[in-house]
Amino acid sequence: MDNKEELLIRRAQRGNLTAFDDLIKQYDEKVMRIILSMLNNVDDARDVYQEVFMKVFQSINKYQFQSKFYTWLFRIAVNTSINFRKKRTKQQGRSIEEYLEENENDWQIIVSDDSENPEKQLLNLELGSNIQHSINKLSPRQKTVFVLRHYHGYKLSEIAEIMNCSEGTIKNYMFRSVQKLKKELKEYRQI
Fold first, then answer.
1. Mean pLDDT of 104-133
2. d(C-alpha 20, C-alpha 43), whole Å
3. How far apart are the first and last CA of the chain?
4. How far apart are CA 190 and CA 66, in angstroms?
5. What is the CATH number of domain 109-191?
6. CA distances for 174 relative to 27, 50, 91, 149, 179, angstroms
7. How far is CA 73 from the centre of its chain?
8. Is the CATH number of domain 1-107 3.40.50.720?
9. Confidence class of residue 26 from pLDDT cuts 50, 70 and 90?
10. How far is residue 81's CA from residue 35's CA, in Å, rounded to a whole number?
11. What is the pTM of this model?
């Protein structure tokens, strides 16, 4: 953590709204991307985004500089996203898988854009849709680890900090998620 960030945090802890705003501007896009990749729905992501920063504002005094600020912030974002998804699913009386299947078109992977070959375009779109569908079948924690690692490029140690668990647990989630995805997408391995 650099001195400027520490100074902003300390000012925000004393109630300085400008310092809090400056601090949040450094991370708001990354937080939104993480939330969106976990929820797959822009409207839900916006709601959770606001909730995350309300929680951060209300609990900034609890931050004790024992971990990196972004780790503390992303942990709040990840946990709030997981809780939102569980609450939403519970309220609707449907499984997470059913909810995610219904909303999978809100955010899809496009494997590549090969505009010269319409057949290849269609196959890529189908593959991207199937990959996203398979990722949505992962447990919330497995999906979180997979998304943070492969979509946002975090190291396993950073993910462990964000999720507040051991690196071994993260490796286990990653291993299980990859195994499930291999099983789900086995027909594409021959292509």
1. 62
2. 24
3. 46
4. 48
5. 1.10.10.10
6. 25, 29, 29, 9, 9
7. 12
8. no
9. very high
10. 6
11. 0.63
Rounded distance between C-alpha atoms, residue 133 and residue 151, angstroms: 15
Under a CB-based contact definition with an 8 Å cutoff, are residues 39 and 81 in contact?
A: yes
Which of 45, 33, 13, 43 shows the shortest CA–CA distance to 74?
33
pLDDT in tens, 140-181: 888 888 888 888 888 888 888 888 889 999 999 989 988 888
Rounded Cα gap, residues 68 and 70, in angstroms: 6
State the Cα–Cα distance between residues 77 and 32, nearest whole angstrom: 9
- Integer Rg of the chain from CA: 19
Could you state, in order of their start, the residue ranges of all structural domains in the chain?
1-107, 109-191
* Distance from C-alpha of 98 to C-alpha of 85, rounded to nearest angstrom: 12
Query: Of the candidates 120, 141, 137, 148, which has an alpha carbon nearest to the alpha carbon of residue 182?
Result: 137
